[in-house]
Write a structure and sequence with these properties.
The chain has 18 helices and 15 strands. By secondary structure, it is α/β, with parallel strands linked by helices. The chain has two domains: 5-224 and 392-462, 3-Layer(aba) Sandwich (Rossmann fold), CATH 3.40.50; 227-387, no CATH class. α1 runs antiparallel to α5 and α14 packs across α15. The two termini are 20 Å apart.
């Protein structure tokens, strides 16, 4: 059995030489991590900050949570088996990010992942260190814009969280030794699935897989190919992938995701500097208040859906006095429903893309029919979206478990299909999971992690090659 100190030294040297294409390391004396909060009971739980780079290559301080398994006095095994990089789902409120959720006992995917080192039945998940970074724009960097689905940048930052999290754990007085065969994996669903795959790519492309003992990733229903996702929204009429869904062509079932994407791309992609939200989104959609809600990071995704639903019932008076009748709001949000359960009221709202995006953007996306000037504007956005695809441009070295529902209308199955088609030689294990749409699929996935539903899949992922 070996302690982790030599590992940390090697990783530090590797990072000092790291040259990501768009986000190179900053030539400064790197500060160390800072412990923000530490508790030691049935597990070690630590909130910490660490240095990384932002979308301009400048220094930024980010935050992360770490939860580590502690052996009981009578445990026959006293070693860490694995390191898991837990990548969180799409959120719109700061209270949902890992450091906030753990610090304030909120529910959500971060809380479920944090429980695995003490409650999981699968040994590799139980005897683990779980590292869960807050993405830029949440936690200690709440005042910054979140670069939503800007893959290379987020992958670099998440890898930094892994590096400093392991250094932090090594420095704790009660750190456990690592098993000789310990391994690291990335894990996530939805945005977290894409971040897990992006981090997987980053680790491989920068020759860190051996340093981190990297085994691979477990990715659920992630937007790996945003072009494919956009095309599905425009074209599918509930008949794709051999199943029937309620999706209607020209609509999106999650209206808050696309403004997050547009805002993130404008903020981070060099081709979009100087553009504004109004170049792409309609006044009516902006007048809902969506951009203010995204900026404030106070409202959850469910609360935003509820606001959209209420607008279809009551209409909307915008901040500049513009009035939209309930009928006009129903044209923007054509399908809506609400249902009650023991967990509360759930709101389902779709958005019509022709009322959400400007006519120029819609025309360009569908047939490139706009003028050259506007075409350049919209092509730059399309290029930014293409640049953040994960489905091609790299040779996969390590294993990936993909989980996806054929009934997912928010992140359709085509995201996985495109990746698989472009990587016929990759070691992939695919799980066609359930008959639910995106959110329920994610709920069932996370609730199953502590049991043995995915025992064979994790056993395959962690197995010696």
């Amino acid at each position: 059995m070996r302690k982790i100190l030599p590992f940390i030294v090697i990783v530090s040297v590797m990072f000092s030489c790291l040259e990501p294409d768009r986000y190179p390391p900053v030539d400064i004396d790197e500060p160390e991590y800072q412990i923000l909060k530490l508790s030691d009971s049935k597990s070690i739980t630590c909130l910490y900050s660490y240095p990384s780079v932002d979308e301009n290559g400048n220094p930024i301080t980010l935050s992360s949570a770490l939860v580590a398994w502690k052996p009981a006095d009578d445990d026959s095994v006293q070693t860490i088996k694995s390191v898991i990089v837990g990548c969180h789902i799409t959120i719109t409120s700061n209270k949902e990010c890992p450091t906030s959720a753990l610090g304030n006992f909120q529910s959500g995917d971060a809380v479920v992942m944090a429980s695995l080192p003490t409650q999981a039945d699968i040994p590799e998940l139980r005897r683990s260190i779980m590292i869960m970074p807050d993405y830029q724009g949440y936690g200690i960097s709440r005042d910054r814009i979140h670069p939503y689905l800007v893959q290379d940048l987020t992958a670099r930052q998440v890898t930094d969280a892994l590096k400093y999290g392991l250094q932090l754990y090594k420095d704790l007085y009660n750190a456990q030794p690592f098993a000789d065969d310990w391994k690291t994996i990335c894990l996530g669903f939805s945005q977290g699935g894409a971040v897990a795959l992006a981090t997987h790519r980053f680790i491989e492309q920068h020759a860190l897989d051996e340093i981190f003992h990297f085994a691979g990733s477990f990715c659920g229903d992630g937007p790996y190919d945003l072009i494919q996702t956009f095309n599905y929204y425009f074209e599918d009429d509930g008949q794709s992938y051999g199943v029937k869904t309620q999706h209607k062509h020209g609509t999106t079932p999650e209206p808050l995701v696309l403004p997050l994407l547009v805002k993130g791309m404008i903020q981070a992609h060099p081709n979009l500097k100087g553009y504004s939200i109004g170049d792409f989104l309609t006044k009516q959609f902006i007048d809902t208040g969506i951009m203010d809600w995204i900026d404030s990071k106070e409202m959850t995704t469910g609360q935003i859906r509820e606001k959209f639903y209420e607008m279809t019932e009551n209409g909307l008076t915008a901040s500049d006095g513009t009035y939209y009748s309930p009928q006009q709001m129903q044209e923007l949000f054509p399908t809506r429903s609400k249902s009650k359960s023991l967990l509360g009221t759930y709101y389902y709202v779709t958005a019509d893309l022709s009322h959400m995006f400007t006519p120029g953007f819609i025309g360009y996306w569908n047939d490139n029919s706009t003028s050259l000037e506007n075409g350049d504007l919209f092509q730059n956005m399309k290029t930014a979206i293409e640049d953040n695809s994960l489905v091609q441009g790299w040779e996969v070295k390590n294993r990936i478990v993909f989980l996806h529902s054929k009934y997912d209308t928010t992140v359709p199955l085509g995201n996985y299909n495109e990746f698989a088609a472009n990587h016929p030689e990759a070691q992939i294990r695919f799980i066609a999971y359930g008959k639910d749409d995106h959110e329920m699929t994610g709920t069932k996935f996370f609730l199953s992690l502590s049991g043995t539903t995915f025992l064979e899949d994790f056993t395959w992922l962690f197995a010696e090659k």
